[in-house]
């Protein structure tokens, strides 16, 4: 791996860390607000929607991480990791869609 590739991967890790932090922080915020609304009994429909939003954000965060990794590996032309990341992406999407089915 060249120094340029190492720099790209270093930036990727930093950006992915920020993405994961933003996803978890926004999910936690939604869940906390929704929980407060649910416990106090104020705006029960809004509480339900906010709690659902928090859970969806939490589920989508890893999918965003894999998608960002896929783009970087494709730019680096690292086809082994592109194929591996696509496989992980498909498994995550399938698991998410199967969980969403009633």
How would you describe this protein?
With 102 residues, the chain is mostly helical. It has one domain (3-100). Helix content is 91%, strand content 0%. Helix 1 runs antiparallel to helix 2 and helix 2 packs antiparallel against helix 3. The longest helix is centred in the first third of the chain and has 38 residues, at 3-40. It starts with a helix and ends with a helix. The relative contact order is 0.12. The model has no long low-confidence stretch (mean pLDDT 88).
What is the topology?
Layout: H1 3-40, H2 44-76, H3 79-100
Q: What would a concise description of this structure say?
A:
By secondary structure, the protein is mainly alpha-helical. It has helices at 3-40, 44-76, 79-100.
Any descriptors?
102 residues, mainly alpha, 3 helices, elongated
The parts where pLDDT drops under 50 for at least 5 residues are none
H/E series:
HHH
- Give the helix level as a range of percent: over 70%
The whole-angstrom Rg is: 18 Å
Number of domains: 1
Q: Estimate the mean pLDDT confidence.
A: 88
């Amino acid at each position: 791996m060249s120094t340029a590739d190492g720099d790209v991967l270093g930036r990727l890790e930093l950006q992915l860390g920020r993405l994961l932090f933003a996803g978890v922080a926004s999910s936690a915020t939604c869940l906390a607000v929704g929980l407060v609304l649910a416990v106090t009994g104020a705006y029960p429909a809004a509480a339900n929607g906010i709690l659902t939003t928090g859970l969806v954000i939490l589920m989508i965060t890893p999918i965003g991480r894999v998608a960002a990794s896929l783009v970087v590996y494709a730019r680096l032309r690292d086809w082994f990791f592109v194929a591996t990341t696509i496989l992980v992406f498909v498994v995550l999407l399938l698991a998410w869609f199967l969980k969403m089915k009633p």
